[in-house]
What we know:
The chain has a single domain (9-131), classed as Sandwich (Immunoglobulin-like), CATH 2.60.40.10. The relative contact order is 0.26. The strands form two sheets. Strands 1, 5, 6, 8, 11 and 12 form a six-stranded antiparallel β-sheet that branches. Strands 2, 3, 4, 7, 9 and 10 form a six-stranded antiparallel β-sheet that branches. The chain is elongated and about 70 Å long. It is mainly beta. A hairpin with a 3-residue loop joins strand 2 and strand 3 (23-28). Helix content is 0%, strand content 53%. It has no helices and twelve strands.
Amino acid sequence: xxxxxxxxxxxxxxxxxxxxxxxxxxxxxxxxxxxxxxxxxxxxxxxxxxxxxxxxxxxxxxxxxxxxxxxxxxxxxxxxxxxxxxxxxxxxxxxxxxxxxxxxxxxxxxxxxxxxxxxxxxxxxxxxxxxxxxxxxxxxxxxxxx
Length: 146
């Protein structure tokens, strides 16, 4: 994968898009240009006393708008980039077809447990993608002098 200027494609979100007494959802940015795939991350972190249930489904459903392509619209446990007792991370491949800002609706599904209880969570998220046009390389003039 090529390196891209950081300002060319931004996957924007608040550091903690969702939070409760039991968990936080963190969104991490990515960079690229229009037409190039970039990777963003959605991380679920269980807070003190809670842990992720490793037997229950863990999902991320994405609903991209027109002009936005994601590698997969439904990610499951097998798609996780990281899985620990208290943390799980999905890496999301995103490509924008045109410059501008786009919002991607998402829903994370998981189950948190502690010694006395488990609770299923469905958390709605909104990911914002912004892209700028790819830079055009300057053309080379012929080496002939007048």
